[in-house]
Amino acid sequence: MAKQPLIELQDVSFQYEYTNVLNNISLEINEGDFLALLGPNGSGKSTMLKLILGLLKPSSGQVKLFGQDASKFNHREWIGYVSQKSNSFNSGFPATVREVVASGLVKKLGLFKRKSKNEEKLVVEALQSVGMEDFINRNIGELSGGQQQRVFIARALVAEPKLLILDEPTVGIDYENVQSFYNLMAHLNKRHDMTLMLVTHDVDIVSSKISHVACLNKTIHFHGFKDEYMNLSKDQLNEWYGYSVRKIHNHKEGEQC
Ligand SMILES: Nc1ncnc2c1ncn2[C@@H]1O[C@H](COP(=O)(O)OP(=O)(O)OP(=O)(O)O)[C@@H](O)[C@H]1O
């Protein structure tokens, strides 16, 4: 059966008041893809995610989610999002881990729906999936950056999204935890058929997990299978990015660029 595109950008351009950020972006992300979005600082990655999430409207072109125009899309609970700055709570923030994760259910259950037994079960399961169930009664502000990030992933997972979008999710997390974070993402992708799109600079670490790569620098220079990306030349990447970009090691000498 042909895979359904969950995200479609059709000739999308975007500018902030004075800054032209994205030009003529056309891209499809299909059900089951695990896509790494790469690009230098300021290349428009976060802006593109915001357009997909409907937080910004394109200046021209069309964004579709699950086949529907993004502005009319009414199944927000199908999409989980973890932003770049989610793991920076100060220690006085008055919410427990349970409350933070349960707030992720609002999209699914509605704001005024009575708390059900099921809610507690979903919260515990989401925390278990990120190995944070022992922290359920702790104040979110008392956790380390990496632990907070896991809680925010659990918050995104609790509504059981079909599509998970993450903006540089491992910033400030140590190497070991980055590894286990990507193992979790691979598990969600493979075992739970979750479609994943993430902005990352951890190309080496994530390379064994992802299926696709997109290279952005104001426009999409490349979108394809990971193996095709790995066969691109250093010169080609330099031309797009204007400076050396580290490329995935393909277990061969001299491949880095
Ligand atoms: N709210 C805003 N108003 C005006 N310009 C903005 C705004 N947000 C971002 N920009 C500009 O748009 C461009 C793209 O920014 P964006 O955050 O999308 O890039 P990015 O690829 O995510 O960068 P980074 O890797 O540094 O996070 C930058 O030149 C930035 O300065």
TrEMBL record:
As one GO molecular function, the record gives: ATP hydrolysis activity
The family database entries (PANTHER family) matched by this protein are listed as: METAL TRANSPORT SYSTEM ATP-BINDING PROTEIN TM_0124-RELATED
Broadest EC class assigned to this enzyme: hydrolase
Record's family? Belongs to the ABC transporter superfamily.
Task: Write out the entry's keywords from A to Z.
Answer: ATP-binding, Hydrolase, Nucleotide-binding, Transport
Q: Where is the ABC transporter domain?
A: 7-242
Which InterPro entries is this protein grouped with? Answer: AAA+_ATPase, ABC_transporter-like_ATP-bd, ABC_transporter-like_CS, Metal_Ion_Import_ABC, P-loop_NTPase
Keyword Transport applies: yes
UniProt protein name: Zinc import ATP-binding protein ZnuC
UniProt EC number:
3.6.3.-
